[in-house]
Amino acid sequence: MSNTLNWSLPKEKALVSFFHNNCTEVEDNGSFKGPEFARAVKHVHKQCSGSMKDVKSIQNKWQSLCKTLCVVVTIMGVSGFHWNDENGVNIDASTALIWKEYIKVHTKAKPFHNHRWASTATTSKQSQAADDNNTSDSD
């Protein structure tokens, strides 16, 4: 049975880090190859203590993280909202009415009212580091 519960932040970070560092293994359709999920199981287990995740759990978690990232990126692109890695959208009195209307249509955005998504900062930092490395390589 796959262990889909109890994903700690360190385990999420280890998973994101693994796939970020192995992004060259993506198939033409944009998803990772099957063997990469098996390698991710070993990586997460090596990096973090606790219950061992299986391939299905890794696949489910990765899919969930990707869906959440899409929601967060969409929020970040909406004019009038300000995202930060500490407070999410950081809704206040001046944006509360707009947010209320927004979440009627975008229900999956609701948790980010004044709550961050911890993986955003990790993903952003890794992407920036990769961009910096690519820039320095081309100099």
From TrEMBL:
UniProt superkingdom: Eukaryota
All copies of domain Myb/SANT-like, residue ranges: 7-102
Pfam families registered for this protein in UniProt: Myb_DNA-bind_3
Extent of Polar residues compositional bias: 117-139
Region called Disordered, residue ranges: 116-139
Name of the molecule in the record: Myb/SANT-like domain-containing protein
The organism of origin for this protein: Cyclocybe aegerita (Black poplar mushroom)
